[in-house]
Amino acid sequence: MAKLLIRRDEMILLKNSEAGKNFDLYGNLFAALQTYDVLSEDEFNKSQTLDDKARAVILNNKKILFDEIKNEWSGIGCNDEATGEIRCQLCRTKNKLVFYIHNKLNDNELNVGSECIKKFPGIENVAKIRRTHNEQQKYQAESKRRIEFDEIDLTDINYIKESEEWFKNFKILLPYKLFHDIETLLYNLNSLKTTYIKSGGEITYVKKQYFELKTLLKKCKKEAENIYQRNKGQLLVCRKGLADWLNSNHNDIWEAVMKNGGLLNTETLKYCYETEFVQSHLKRFNARISDGDISIIGMNGPSIRFMIKNSDYIYPLYFGMNCKVFMQNIGCYCLTNKNYHFGKKDLVNISVEQTNSNFDAMCNRIMSPLEKIGLQIERSEYTGEKYYVRLPQTTRASKWSNRVETTELGYKKIAESAIFTKFNALVFASDEEIEAAFARILSQLNRTTKWLTKVEKEKMEEISKSLTIQQQREFVPYA
Ligand SMILES: [Zn+2]
To answer: How far is the CA of 275 from the centre of ligand 1 (A)?
Structure first.
């Protein structure tokens, strides 16, 4: 077959475009080619009409011409493949996919099949149309398969989703193997579905696999419900709230509980300091206290609140113990050992709540041991400021003389947090221990600070009182 210098598709595009008409550039090419469908080498040689410019273009500069032609066109859309096949105007064959292109200079339009369009790459907008088309095709294919998958189990169409919800909200933590079996089955069911939707496959095989997995999952779900019925009243069952908390805070413990059949034990309970969990067992903990003068009265944030009331604490003192420390040292035994009891000696890292009533209760408690060493602690009624008070002391001037000297009443302001820190360590201390602790403080104060006189202290109080009032005024602008 003779070599074609201009193919049919090129010829049709050329004839529908404007560029070829440029006589200056391409000579009489456009007019001379009007009678041809294609141009073979033979015809080219025999042609009487083609001028030299036209010949030079055809032989050696076709690219310049077609680049210019290409720029006249722009893609304006493509057909919906479902509507059937459409003839390509460049090659006249039927195509499932045709692009509609429009000539910006003369408004001509052409249908170009998906193969022919590749011969003229770079026509404006075509790539974008192709992309959108491909995405639509993909989406349609996926939708079709999604529906096909749903047809598998019409009477139980949301089985996977409902099973996931059921598992996510299961009331207790399950034993390790069962938990992972369910997790794996759900994963496999989901992946069966998504893989089929995304990539397709043999639907009968997918169906078979689906029902196999469903049967296994149903068996596991039944087992899980049986375990729940058996364990729901158990003290050591790990309920969902705690399980979720462990999963995100102590993943290793969460696993350990599952490996223990889903039940808590002394070791894992040490890490179960979730506030709600601790709170739910407060009554149980309280029942295990061996000392009659302390009791659990509730929670305060992450701490358990205790109260002590006895002959030392005529006014009750409220203090807290962090749940974490409590569960580590006490709580874990309360729930696992029927004979376990705890008392003051077991309470560690306690902290007295920083309130005025606690301050007063504590001062009342330590008053008599402190008096023995000539010290007092007091709280100003107006400003709430706290002071060490050195009581007047009578001492002999020297060991060779009977003359006595009396020291004046002295005051020393204390930071609230500092004094409460001291209290924390002394809540259950004996008189002797309290005396010794404050004797050390007193001798340190005598060495390092100047005591204020009563007049100086009152003057200072006056100042901070007026400051307080002023501040209050500032904060109540429209009262
Ligand atoms: Zn074609």
So the answer is: 74
Which of 294, 321, 352 is at the close of a domain? 352
Cα(10) to centroid(ligand 1), Å? 11
Sorted by sequence, the CB contacts under 8 Å of residue 350 that are 6+ apart come out as 306, 319, 320, 321, 424, 427
Contact 210, 216 (CB under 8 A): no
Q: What is the pTM of this model?
A: 0.76
Q: Give residue 96 CA to ligand 1 midpoint distance, Å.
A: 11
Q: For 289-328, how does the pLDDT look when each residue is reduced to its tens digit (9 = 90+)? A: 999 999 999 999 999 999 999 999 999 999 999 999 999 9
Least confident of 82-96, 273-287, 320-334: 82-96
**348 CA to middle of ligand 1, Å?**
88
Same domain? For 374 and 416 the reply is yes
Strands 375-379 and 317-322 come out as: unpaired
> 428 alpha carbon to ligand 1 midpoint, in Å?
98
Residue 425's domain comprises 356-471
- What confidence score (pLDDT) does residue 308 get? 97
Domain total in the chain? 4
Any domain includes 268: no
